[in-house]
Amino acid sequence: xxxxxxxxxxxxxxxxxxxxxxxxxxxxxxxxxxxxxxxxxxxxxxxxxxxxxxxxxxxxxxxxxxxxxxxxxxxxxxxxxxxxxxxxxxxxxxxxxxxxxxxxxxxxxxxxxxxxxxxxxxxxxxxxxxxxxxxxx
Length: 137
Prior knowledge:
This protein is mainly alpha-helical.
């Protein structure tokens, strides 16, 4: 995977909603989560990240895009992968975890059915995966 520049994201801009919403793509979400996990333990990072993401989606008029299960799931995976990583830089993380950055849909499909992720309950609260990843069997 070709190395990409660090997304133009900071915790401050994310929290105060001054981040460029047009440029806040999936990789930017993952990078912001990575930054939060660099500053706080998982439980605190999840609370802070989710609150900031909800505020941002409301500010830009996209509150229906917020999805609690997907947000928590990626925060947990990013935290787990960071703990297992030999290198700690964003660039190394991105290179070694392309499934989280570039193939998020496939990653979600390994763990969650479309029915579960499409449910209102999954949008509003974190739900555990309803599928077993093939590599876990």
